[in-house]
Amino acid sequence: MRRLARISLHNRLLLVALLPAALLATLVTALVLYRGTRTLDQALHDHGNAIVSFLAPAAEYGVIAGNRATLASLLEAAMDQREVSAGAIYNEQGVLLASKGRFTVLEPEVLHTVHQGEVPDTAPEIFAVIAPIVSASINIEDEFQAGTAASPQEGTRTIGWVHVELDTRPSAREKNAIIGASLLLVVAGLAVTGLIAVRLARSVSRPVAGLVQGVEQMAAGVLDVAIPEHATSKELAALEHGFNTMARAISDNQRTLQTRIDDATALLAYQAQHDPLTGLPNRRVFEQKLEECVAASRRAGDHGALCFIDLDRFKIVNDTCGHAAGDDLLMRIALLIQQRVREQDIVCRIGGDEFALILRACSRVDALRLAEHLREGIAAFEFEYQDRSFSIGASIGMTYIDGSQIDPSEILIAADAACYEAKRSGRNQVVEYVVRPDDNATEPPPQGISGEHVS
Ligand SMILES: Nc1nc2c(ncn2[C@@H]2O[C@H](COP(=O)(O)OP(=O)(O)OP(=O)(O)O)[C@@H](O)[C@H]2O)c(=O)[nH]1
């Protein structure tokens, strides 16, 4: 049963088509052969009986008269009949009166037993028929059975026997020819049936195999699948076409979904790293970049600086013209800072009106110059909103990153302290805080290098 379950669809279809055909062919052939050989045997028997039925009455007077020449000519005539190989006529005592051909000599006892309906044994290629010759009162219409002898009629007397032998070989040859032809027909029929069955089985199993392969690929995650559409039957062709349409739809949907997911992921990633108002990198990115900058200055001597930029009197804009005006100003300041720094520098918005600037590959003097350039730009900027005009400034705290610092947080604290100092000592100025190795950076000694106070 397990073996049956393992048979492929193709072989199952072959079995379904071929098994009944083979069984039917075997049965029909057996029947044809049986009927055919029986008919041939019967024909031989009938032929033998017909000959002895003719010979027995014809030989009656020859036997009575003891005329061997007459009997011999009767046998001669019988020998002309097809398949007759030998013939003999015996008298009542079993004495041979005439013979033709090579026949089996029968003993008188054997001849007598024929009365009792027994058939004498002969060679396989010989079929022997024996009939009694009865006296004149015999009934001409008596029938003798093949290979047997009939009993004489009432009031008649057996005066001899006619013995005819027929050659069964032509009949056997005919049988063999029938068998050969039948087998040839069966083999040819089965070959044609097999050929048709193979083609039919393939026309079903091939599309099914294609479908199975497609489904397996999709199950394995390959959605961009298309199977060949070669099916000749309407139903299988519809299945193949349907599968391809379905696979295409799933693949398209998946692609669209993936694009949306990618877009949403990119947007989320952007939002997680950028300030929504100004589009600048946010505090999280700033902290990462600062860490990278500190590591680069320690590892490769790529020194830089951190500037904290806190706008001065920004609140007035909010309070006078509303939050939207403040937003507008923040965006413009963000743009201004970006325009005034170098390409490798990183500008981030880290709070309400606070920006951070990380300067990369920069000497201390250049850093101070850049910070000062920025301060001047913000101080010179005039913000016009509706019919109002505002001038704001920026307090900038700077710390140089020279590779001596290990922890980015000490740079942060230092820059914050410097910015606080810039604010405290009158705003609109740049203050540098120098971090020393033994410095806990909580109370910075300010080193203002510029400080134009704007009132
Ligand atoms: N329009 C706007 N205002 C903001 C935003 N974030 C923070 N603020 C406001 O910005 C102001 C910042 O406060 P401060 O720094 O004390 O104001 P300031 O006038 O600059 O004060 P100084 O720094 O001392 O000169 C607060 O009033 C906040 O409400 C924002 O995204 N948009």
Automatic annotation (TrEMBL):
Domain spans labelled GGDEF: 302-435
Membrane-crossing residue ranges in chain numbering: 177-198
SUPFAM superfamilies found in the cross-reference section: HAMP domain-like, Nucleotide cyclase
EC number: 2.7.7.65
Catalytic reaction list: 2 GTP = 3',3'-c-di-GMP + 2 diphosphate
Record keyword Flavoprotein present: no
Region (Disordered): 436-455
Domain of life: Bacteria
InterPro entries: Diguanylate_Cyclase (IPR050469), GGDEF_dom (IPR000160), HAMP_dom (IPR003660), Histidine_kinase_BarA_N (IPR019247), Nucleotide_cyclase (IPR029787), Rev_trsase/Diguanyl_cyclase (IPR043128)
Record key words, sorted: Membrane, Transmembrane, Transmembrane helix
Domain HAMP: start-end pairs: 202-255
PROSITE patterns: GGDEF, HAMP
One Pfam family it belongs to: HAMP
NCBIfam families: GGDEF
Protein name: diguanylate cyclase
Organism lineage: Bacteria, Pseudomonadati, Pseudomonadota, Betaproteobacteria, Rhodocyclales
